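Thread: zinc ion complex, take 2
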Amino acid sequence: MPDKAKGKVFPVNLSGEVYLPIKSEAERKRIPVRDYITILLDHHIKKREFAEKAWPGLTIDAVDPKNPNHIILRDKNRNFFDIWLKDNQLRCQQDESTGCCHTSFIWLIGWPIAGLLSDGLTNLT
Ligand SMILES: [Zn+2]
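Output below.
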């Protein structure tokens, strides 16, 4: 973001599907909705920045189109890692682990957003 844009306020349009639960959460926390949305988006940006520093080059390669519980990660050396969601646990097939850097990466960015990232809407690197 150009420095000139920092400190400015930008209007956004949210669907009711997104706005209403956010508004409800903001009201429970007694925070103005616009401030709460800014906090949430800032948190998202900081998580992405942390992921880029913690696991440089690690990206979502794809979500298995035949199985939404299977995400494929790719590292900077073009190694691929199959992450499976089963019984509310993430498991890395290559490391045979539920606690390796690949499962941690998915836990950090969140399983639902991982699908969006793999669609080319955003890339972590
Ligand atoms: Zn792994």
